[in-house]
Amino acid sequence: MDTPKQTAAIPKRKKDIPWEEFLASHPPGAILPIFQIATKKAAGNSLPSFLMWDYFLWTPDVKLYCDNEACNKAQFFQCMTNPIS
After folding, report:
1. Is 59 buried (19+), middle (13-18) or exposed (0-12) by CB count in 10 A?
2. Would you say the pTM of this structure is higher than 0.70?
3. Domain segments of the chain: what residues?
4. Which DSSP helix (H) or strand (E) runs through 20?
5. How many Å apart are CA 32 and CA 28, to the nearest integer?
6. What is d(CA 75, CA 7) in angstroms, rounded to the nearest whole number?
7. pLDDT tens per residue across all 85 residues of the chain
8. CA dist list (Å): 78 to 59, 61, 83
């Protein structure tokens, strides 16, 4: 007897959302189409033309609101390692 495969349902959305908005408004494990997740820079070496780019994950500052009594305010989070310059 064949059983149907179960897959995680991806919520339908009218458009892709920016990476920064995704980080600030969706919990870990969420699956959504996003854009502005990485940038490319010239590799600066003598590689063949199809390998002339390095890609870097964009690490924006993220603002999250903490509604716990201990903080009850917006908190800002910043990547402290390997930021894109």
Report:
1. middle
2. no
3. 17-77
4. helix 19-25
5. 11
6. 35
7. 555 555 555 555 567 888 888 888 888 888 888 887 888 777 666 656 566 777 788 888 888 888 888 889 998 888 887 655 5
8. 8, 5, 9
